[in-house]
């Protein structure tokens, strides 16, 4: 018969044993040490100077002094000596120094691994409930990758259900984003947690609605507030040199689409009031209004204006298709304008000869060479072989050899300039400038 128990090595009483109380007391002391084991610390290396009975230490791999030679054991002070007990895998101990509960694996004290699969709920510094089965109370929550990327997945059962992130203030909802009752991704906001407004919605085709439950364009902005602008673009840079709005289309200009169209009375009886067509033509149901007072066209100076003189207010005559200052006795065709309302024969940042035209100014098209204001389906303007895309083009407005000649309307002339007898003087602007009506 063994003289100790197989697990805790407690001494047992043998038949005819003398002083059985000694064996019994030894077993009780070991049991007192091992049952509900509480240690002062794990991996202890140095014994205390004044050991106390009832204090248990989990020794580390290299204990010193009175503990030397007893690595990875439990040590306790009994009857003025140290008692060492060998560990067995699976033994548990709690540490007073805050290390918590550990389990002896056979080589080290390890933290227990809780089985969290299919638990009813989990609260981290908070209480979970039947709805919020995971509750976390903290300043932040970190979800990190494990060697690559990381996804947070929120799944719902059916299209009509909700899969979203809800943002609250004092436990009342203020913003929510996700799949709210549909498969469109949306952001909705609320001032009080009761009334909600769709602020942004992106459907499965990628169309974006701002204030619109259904987006009828790639970007659809809608609201019903009579005192709020529907769309505003603000540039705060004081050195801005680009475009506030910039529209681009891959299709060539062909009079088949518009860069801009404006409707009134939106609905079944809507009317187009403005339209900027792709071929550079603009339309309005009413009038175009400008701050200028004359109709003008670009003409080229015969002398090229080599000194880049300011020739506003000079009356001019034609020499072929160019202009020169009018001399006494000449019948001028117009006046160099300083404030035209409409300017013809202008350019828009490109060489006017970039595309080939027929004798009447209509574009030639690259499908069949047909000319005219319209274009065959899918046709593009025929590029001029002389066009060089590597050269920077300077517009007529920036070139001294070109000027704007007012041909009709109110224009200001320098005093003493030749005039057409049909022109009517309106008033003196200053001692050197007069205002005339050209007709």
Automatic annotation (TrEMBL):
<feature type="domain" description="Peptidase G2 IMC autoproteolytic cleavage">
    <location>
        <begin position="269"/>
        <end position="419"/>
    </location>
</feature>
<dbReference type="Pfam" id="PF11962">
    <property type="entry name" value="Peptidase_G2"/>
</dbReference>
<dbReference type="InterPro" id="IPR021251">
    <property type="entry name" value="DUF2793"/>
</dbReference>
<dbReference type="InterPro" id="IPR021865">
    <property type="entry name" value="Peptidase_G2"/>
</dbReference>
<dbReference type="Pfam" id="PF10983">
    <property type="entry name" value="DUF2793"/>
</dbReference>
<protein>
    <recommendedName>
        <fullName>Peptidase G2 IMC autoproteolytic cleavage domain-containing protein</fullName>
    </recommendedName>
</protein>
């Amino acid at each position: 018969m063994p003289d100790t128990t197989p697990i805790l090595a407690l001494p047992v009483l043998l038949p005819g044993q003398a002083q059985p109380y000694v064996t019994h007391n030894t077993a009780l002391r070991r049991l007192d040490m091992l049952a509900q084991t509480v240690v002062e610390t794990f991996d202890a290396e140095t014994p205390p100077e004044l050991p106390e009975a009832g204090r248990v230490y989990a020794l580390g791999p290299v204990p010193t002094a009175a503990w030397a030679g007893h690595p990875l054991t439990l040590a306790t002070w009994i009857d003025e000596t140290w008692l060492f007990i060998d560990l067995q895998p699976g033994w548990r101990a709690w540490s007073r120094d805050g290390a918590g509960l550990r389990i002896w694996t056979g080589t080290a004290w390890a933290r227990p691994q809780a089985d969290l699969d299919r638990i009813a709920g989990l609260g981290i510094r908070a209480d979970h409930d039947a709805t919020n089965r995971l509750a976390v109370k903290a300043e932040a929550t970190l979800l990190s990758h494990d060697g690559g990327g990381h996804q947070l997945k929120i799944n719902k059962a059916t299209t009509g259900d909700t899969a979203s992130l809800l943002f609250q203030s004092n436990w009342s909802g203020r913003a929510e984003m996700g799949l709210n009752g549909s498969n469109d991704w949306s952001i909705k906001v609320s001032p009080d947690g009761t009334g909600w407004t769709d602020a942004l919605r992106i459907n499965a085709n990628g169309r974006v609605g701002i204030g619109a439950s259904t987006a009828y364009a790639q970007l659809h902005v809608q609201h019903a507030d009579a005192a709020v602008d529907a769309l505003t673009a603000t540039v705060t840079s004081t050195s801005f040199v680009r475009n506030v709005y910039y529209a681009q289309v891959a299709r060539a200009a062909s009079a088949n689409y518009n860069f801009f169209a404006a409707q009134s009375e939106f609905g079944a009886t809507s009317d187009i009031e403005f339209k900027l067509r792709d071929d550079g033509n603009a339309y309005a149901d009413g009038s175009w209004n400008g701050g200028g007072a004359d109709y003008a066209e670009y003409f080229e100076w015969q002398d090229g204006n080599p000194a880049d003189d300011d020739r506003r207010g000079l009356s001019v005559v034609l020499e072929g298709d160019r202009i020169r200052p009018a001399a006494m006795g000449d019948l001028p065709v117009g006046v160099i304008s300083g404030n035209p309302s409409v300017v013809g024969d202008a350019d828009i940042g490109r060489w006017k000869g970039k595309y080939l035209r027929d004798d009447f100014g209509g574009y030639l098209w690259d499908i069949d060479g047909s000319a005219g204001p319209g274009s065959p389906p899918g046709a593009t303007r025929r590029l001029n072989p002389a066009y060089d895309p590597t050269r920077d083009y300077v517009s007529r407005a920036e070139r001294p050899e070109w000027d704007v000649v007012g041909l009709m309307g109110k224009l200001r002339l320098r005093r003493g300039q030749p005039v057409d007898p049909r022109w009517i003087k309106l008033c003196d602007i200053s001692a050197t400038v007069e205002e005339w009506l050209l007709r």
